[in-house]
Design goal:
4-stranded antiparallel sheet
């Protein structure tokens, strides 16, 4: 689900505040990640503004709350949105 601006700010603040306590490994969550989609179970699609762990600033990555992998889903938010629109236009993705 797309997050509202209020939810984005809330989740970002919540996750940022866990750095150094619940998130002891600095690679678990980065302050430069901005969550903009959520699945309701604690996982988020994020824009990575700094790409501290490699890649390109602005890439879109998956944050899993219970798994250390952070796979890059798209090289940029623009490319991710273009893929979303193309999927919707082709009928391969339908929003209910």
């Amino acid at each position: 689900m797309f997050s509202s601006l209020e939810d984005i700010a809330h989740h970002k603040e919540l996750l940022d505040d866990l750095i150094g306590s619940d998130f002891e490994d600095p690679r678990w969550w980065r302050r430069s990640w901005v969550p903009f989609l959520e699945n309701g179970a604690g996982d988020h699609l994020c824009v990575d503004l700094a790409a501290e762990d490699g890649g390109t600033p602005g890439q879109v990555l998956m944050f899993y709350h219970d798994w250390e992998r952070r796979p890059v889903r798209s090289p940029s938010l623009e490319a991710w949105l273009a893929d979303l629109v193309a999927s919707m236009e082709s009928g391969s993705l339908r929003l209910a």
